[in-house]
Design brief:
The complex is a heterodimer of chains A (about 110) and B (about 240). With about 110 residues, chain A is mainly alpha-helical. Helix content of chain A is about 80%, strand content about 0%. Chain B has 13 helices and no strands. The longest helix of chain B is centred in the first third of the chain and has 34 residues. Classes of the chains: A mainly alpha (about 110), B mainly alpha (about 240). Chains A and B meet through helix 1, helix 2, helix 3, helix 4 and helix 5 of A and helix 1, helix 2, helix 3, helix 4 and helix 5 of B.
C-alpha cells in the first residue's frame, strides 16, 4: 500500500525544513545553548549522519563495489594528509574511473 | 554602498568563485542521484535553489526515490541538515546585536559548510556584503550543476556516471575525516557508523526499512549514545567546527 507522493510537495518540504533549521538560530538565539548533553548531541550528529550516508552507499553507487571501496580508501587517506574538499572529491572520481577501466579489462 | 562595504563585497566575490567551481562538480554528482530518484532537471534545479544543501538534498532525494512520506522527508532533512543548525547557532554569535532582521532572514537562505567556513574565518563581526557576494559567486553554480547532472546523466556513458557519482561521497569524507584525525571520539564514531550502517543493510527485517528511516534511526541512536558517554567540553567544539 504505497501512497503516491507529489515530487513538488516533497521539494517544498525539503526547502521549508532546510530554511527553518538555518533561520531559527539566526533570529532566535540571543544566548548560547548551555545544556551539555544537548550541545554534545548536536555536535556529534553531523559526523554520524555523514558517515552513515557514505558507507555502504559509496560501494553501491559504482558499477563494481571494488572501485567504490578503493575510492573510499583514497578519500580517507587524502583527507588524512590534508587534501581539501575538491581535491578529495575529484580523486575519488578518478580512482573509480581508472579502477573500473582495469576491472573491465580483466573481466 | 559605503567604501568598506564595497571592499567586503569584492573580497566576498573573490572568495566565492573557487567555492562555486567546486560546487559545480559536486552538484553534478548530486544531479545523478536526483535522476536515479526520479526527478527531472527542473525539479532538481528547484530543489537545489531552495534547499541549498549537499547531504540534505542527497538524503531528500533518497526519500523521494524510495516513495517515502512527507513526514519522513521532514525528519530526514532535520537530521541530515542538523549541522546547519549548529553552524547558524555559531554564526548567530558573530552578528552585531543591532543587525536588522531582514539581514538575518537573507543570511539564513545560504548557510553551507563553505559559506560558513569563510565567514567564520574572518575576524570580528560578520559583514553581510561579504557574505552576499560570496553567495552570488557560488550559489548559482550549485543549482545549475544539479540540473546539468540530471540532463548529462542520461547522455554520458555508464562508466563516467559511475565515476562522477562518488564525488558527493568524496565531499562527505573530506568533511568528516579531518575532525576525526584531531578527535578520537569522532574517529570512533565514524567507524561505528560505517559498521552499523553496513550491518543494517543486511540484517533481516532491519534491511526492509527505507534507507531514509535507517539513516535517521542510526544517527539519533549513535549520536545520543556518544553524547551520554563522551559529552564534549567547550574547547573541543571550537576546534572541530568549521568547513
Amino acid at each position: 500500500m504505497q501512497a503516491v507522493h507529489n515530487i513538488y510537495i516533497h521539494i517544498l518540504v525539503m526547502g521549508a525544513v532546510s530554511y527553518l533549521i538555518r533561520v531559527l538560530p539566526l533570529t532566535l538565539i540571543k544566548k548560547e545553548i548551555t545544556n551539555r548533553y544537548v550541545k554534545s548531541f548536536l555536535f556529534y550528529v553531523p559526523y554520524v549522519t555523514l558517515a552513515v550516508m557514505t558507507f555502504p552507499a559509496i560501494i553501491e553507487a559504482t558499477q563494481s563495489p571494488v572501485s567504490g571501496a578503493l575510492a573510499l580508501a583514497a578519500g580517507i587517506i587524502l583527507s588524512l594528509i590534508g587534501a581539501n574538499l575538491i581535491q578529495v572529491a575529484g580523486a575519488c572520481c578518478a580512482v573509480v574511473f581508472i579502477s573500473e577501466l582495469i576491472i573491465g579489462k580483466i573481466v | 554602498m559605503t567604501e568598506s562595504n564595497k571592499k567586503a563585497f569584492r573580497e566576498g566575490f573573490r572568495d566565492g568563485i573557487p567555492i562555486g567551481l567546486g560546487y559545480l562538480a559536486v552538484a553534478f554528482s548530486l544531479g545523478i542521484t536526483a535522476r536515479v530518484s526520479g526527478l527531472n532537471w527542473l525539479q532538481a534545479f528547484i530543489a537545489s535553489a531552495t534547499s541549498y544543501a549537499s547531504a540534505g538534498e542527497y538524503a531528500g532525494f533518497t526519500v523521494i526515490g524510495s516513495g517515502g512520506s512527507y513526514a519522513e522527508m521532514a525528519l530526514m532533512i532535520l537530521v541530515a541538515n542538523c549541522r546547519y543548525l549548529l553552524m547558524s547557532a555559531a554564526l548567530s554569535q558573530r552578528l552585531s546585536a543591532d543587525m536588522p532582521y531582514y539581514h538575518r532572514f537573507l543570511l539564513a537562505t545560504h548557510v553551507t559548510d563553505e559559506i560558513f567556513g569563510i565567514n567564520i574565518s574572518r575576524p570580528g563581526k560578520l559583514v553581510p556584503a561579504y557574505d552576499y557576494a560570496a553567495f552570488l559567486a557560488s550559489g548559482p553554480a550549485w543549482a545549475v550543476g544539479t540540473a546539468v547532472g540530471v540532463l548529462a546523466g542520461n547522455i554520458l556513458p555508464d562508466r563516467v556516471v559511475s565515476a562522477l557519482s562518488v564525488a558527493l561521497f568524496g565531499m562527505f569524507i573530506a568533511i568528516i575525516i579531518p575532525p576525526a584525525k584531531k578527535n578520537r571520539v569522532i574517529a570512533g564514531l565514524v567507524l561505528v557508523s560505517f559498521a552499523l550502517s553496513f550491518a543494517c543493510g543486511r540484517i533481516p527485517y532491519v534491511r526492509e526499512m527505507s534507507s531514509g528511516v535507517r539513516i535517521i534511526i542510526l544517527t539519533v541512536i549513535i549520536a545520543a549514545a556518544a553524547a551520554v558517554l563522551f559529552p564534549v567540553k567547550d574547547e573541543e567544539k571550537e576546534d572541530a567546527g568549521g568547513a
